[in-house]
Amino acid sequence: MHDAPVSKYRTQIMGVAAVFVLLHHYITSLYKDMYLPVLTVLAKRANIGVDIFLFLSGIGLYRSMSRDGKALPFYQRRITRVLIPVLLISLPYWLARDFLYRRDGIGMFLLNWTTLSFWTHNNRTAWYISLLLVLYPLYPLIFRMQKKHTVSIVILTAAVFAAVAAVFQFAPEIYDKTEIAITRIPVFLIGSLTGEILFSEKPEAKRFKPAVVIYTVLTVLMFAFALTPLRKHGDTASLLYRFGSGGAGILLTLLTAKLLDLCSSSKLHGCLKKLGALSLELYLIHIFIMNTMNALRIGEKSSTGVRLLLITCAVTVSVLMTLGVGMIETKLRSRRAEQQKTA
Q: What does the longest C-alpha to C-alpha distance in the chain come to?
């Protein structure tokens, strides 16, 4: 199963998901009163790119832990690949925002820089990173549960569904502050289960394919219902949309994998692979650029044509800065590898 399209093109699919998120933010969040036929409608749903990220992250983490099953090397890889880049890339933005622009002080700066302010102050700037910094430290425990009894991941997914629904019903103030993150935990767990189906040598792992199919079908139905004009309760529709985005993300992942399998363009594959490998960096950089443009009100009163030009420039700058950061990271990794050889 290692050559399954989802596994084979995982990095390229992450590149596609990165483009989805980029378009979602720049088209629907930067200028909220701007409407572009068809494109705005599609961009509003492009936040499903985050669900694709989480699904593929679950698959990737399972494969990573399967190498030796040891927590320490796993944490070392996550610190090198996630925590350090996040702290370095976000440092200039939070320094400028919290000390020069808003003057929030050292306490708020530390909360923002570490992304903890999402949980403490509902700051959604880097909420996705905040979620990763909860899921990744917990993953070795999740992996061991899954490795011992695969069914435990199914039970855990159902439990998270129930817990989120309970928070929605009985603690709406907490749900409103955290829903963008907690509703996406199930698709991450299903990604881990899919990772076992793809990479485990245990024949019994394949028996859990129906669980992934059932999850996908149920959540896609939620997604479809949330978009129908027949829905009566906006809050409930929002909950169903969030849950349903997980299934929609899986379907888009499978469709994208199939299309990439049919596409023979090495340039397209290379471009998407590069973006996918730097998707975390691109996520952060484009968010910070967008927030800076909002804070400075760039293009706020401009025409649609000028706004489109500004969006094009912002996307270009985001990608170029990401590629620049990628080059620096590559050089640092090469230098570290050389030092380890000579040590």
A: 67
Report d(CA 179, CA 267) in Å as an integer: 38
SS3 string, the chain, reads CCCCHHHHCHHHHHHHHHHHHHHHHHHHHCCCCCCCCCHHHHHHHCCHHHHHHHHHHHHHHHHHHHCCCCHHHHHHHHHHHHHHHHHHHHHHHHHHHHHHHCCCCHHHHHHHHCCCHHHHHCCCCCHHHHHHHHHHHHHHHHHHHHHHCCHHHHHHHHHHHHHHHHHHHHCHHHHHHHHHHHCCHHHHHHHHHHHHHHHCCCHHHHHHHHHHHHHHHHHHHHHHHHHCCCCCCHHHHHHHHHHHHHHHHHHHHHHHHHHHHHCCCHHHHHHHHHHHHCHHHHHHHHHHHHHHHHHCCCCCCCCHHHHHHHHHHHHHHHHHHHHHHHHHHHHHHHHHHHHHHHC
Condensed to tens digits (0 to 9), the pLDDT of residues 154-180 reads 999 999 999 999 999 999 999 999 999
- What pLDDT digit, counting tens, does each position of 249-278 carry? 999 999 999 999 999 899 999 999 999 999
Domain that holds residue 32: 5-342
> How many residues would you count in the chain?
343
Number of domains in the chain: 1
